[in-house]
Amino acid sequence: MIAFLSERASFLLTALALLPPLFSFVIIFCFTRSHPRLSAGLSIGTGGASLACAMALLAIHHHMEAPIQYATTWLISGHVRVPFGFLLDHTSLLMLTLVALISLLVQVYSIGYMAGDPGFSRYYSFLSLFAWAMMSLSLSSSLLQLYVFWELVGLSSYLLIGFWYEKFGATQAGKKAFVMTRLGDVSLFIGLAVLLSRFGNLDILALNSAEVTTRLSPGVITISALLLFGGIIGKSAQFPLLTWLPDAMEGPTPVSALLHSATMVAAGVYLFARLFPFFSHSQTAMTVFMAIGTCSMLMASTMAMVNRDIKQVWAYSTISQLGFMIMGLAAGSLYAGTFHLTTHAAFKALLFLCSGVWIHRFGTNDMFEIAKAGGRKFKTPMITMIIAAGALAGVPPLSGFFSKEAIMTALAGLHNPLWPAAGLLGVFLTAYYAFRLIFVILFPREEDTGKSARSRAEHSSAGSRIMAWPLIILAGITLALGFFGHDFKEFLLGKGQVPGEAGGHFAWIAYGSVAFVLFGVVLAWAEFGRKGSSQQGFVERFPALHVFFLERWYIDRFYRATVRLVIDGTLSRLSLLSESRVINGGIDGFSRGTIGAGRIVSLLQSGILRYNLMVVFAVLVLLLIFVLTG
Q1: Where are the domains of the chain?
Q2: Any residues with CB less than 8 A from the CB of 59 and at least 6 apart, and which?
């Protein structure tokens, strides 16, 4: 009886965690759009309710021994059955809590950031839709259900990236994000079709079971894993589909914080962690994942080294850190990849929200302009951003240090030394570009001191306090979270190690990683923080390389050339040729035939009676001859 009541309580808490944001979206969008305060209060209230339920579920099932699934039959076709329901385990409950927490903090922060915006209520309705879609994705019990909410997350991100649709750049960024992520989603959908046709089941627990290896050949597992990973590439902006994410910074800064920390781009890595046992069955696929994550991590880091836009620097950083998480998961460590996903959610949200304070005050994204305007005088965002940048760089004892060391330890346990070497290079680049931005704002050049950027708007002290509280909370989480690494590991994996979990301790990797972090920080200080420095990086001394990184390794140019050559130059011309010759030509030919036939028939209808009688007589004579001769 107690177990039954506990099960019903868990189901009720799950429903109460998911439904309030959906109700908030519907009510705000349909009824309260003309009442901004009511809309914000409704969205924040439902977000708080979802967080409370998520934390209650996490506390109740902290020591669960087996996953809990609430599912009913959704689709049936022959012997194929597709369920719809909720799957509660350590990974899904962790993600649910992360999404609810970051969403709530972003909504509170947005009260000050979006104050006075004419689309204030619409903004909060989209935030509620986004939160509902991502939380529902986290608890989905089957891949088809997950795919539905995966697409809803993509729709929500499109609406929020292009929120200021009056700006041409925002609409273009929204369309670019939507199209490029759809390319990955096509691959994901084909992967689902392959699994459904060969395995006959898309239940996540079934796919993660040992039964998969007995019913599917190694080749099918590898192909389906690679196809599913295509969706991860698109959603998490990995190579080669990584250029949409920096352009997505056209949306409001709180949206960027939400996109980059616990929703949207984190959904790809979450899917990897969700299907980790399934992916682990194919070593070939895991090696491909490792290569793609490594390329994305290094390429995005080089792009961040030369960019002046504060939001784009953190966007490139997100791509890089997601690649780093994929490296940890591909190395065989579910704990390392998931722990870095958790710590990254806190300090990356903090980085964007700190940036938003300056952008809201000065109306510019340029870090050098922010420095000229006296950005360092804003104590709360300056201090909290230093904490977040230190965590991003892996400075001990901040949370990012512990999660990065877990990934580096997993990489060090691999036979190929290329992967830990690439990881150390990424650690150096991350520390360099993170503190390059910090030192630019903290130590503006003396000749620029006093020059101020154009201020967009003066916001009230009440609005400033509202924006400050989420920064303080996230900074506290960033400071403390790393010390719970052991507890996190026991929570995620249990007392034992899951199959394939990398083990062992490599002391040298910790010292080497810290040394590379310090090297990156010192080099950034010498070039951007030291008194009298020119504030030009070492890459800028090589103009060709500098332009190469600024142009994003010419990936966007390649895409534009491909679109111009393949779509505009070939497909569009073939479509025009088909329209002019096949469609228009066919219709014109049919019309000319109709006119000609009408003219021939008109000759038989002259209107003169004797001609008509003569034709009738001739036809009768011909029929008579045919009958007699037959």
Answers
A1: 294-306+327-549
A2: none
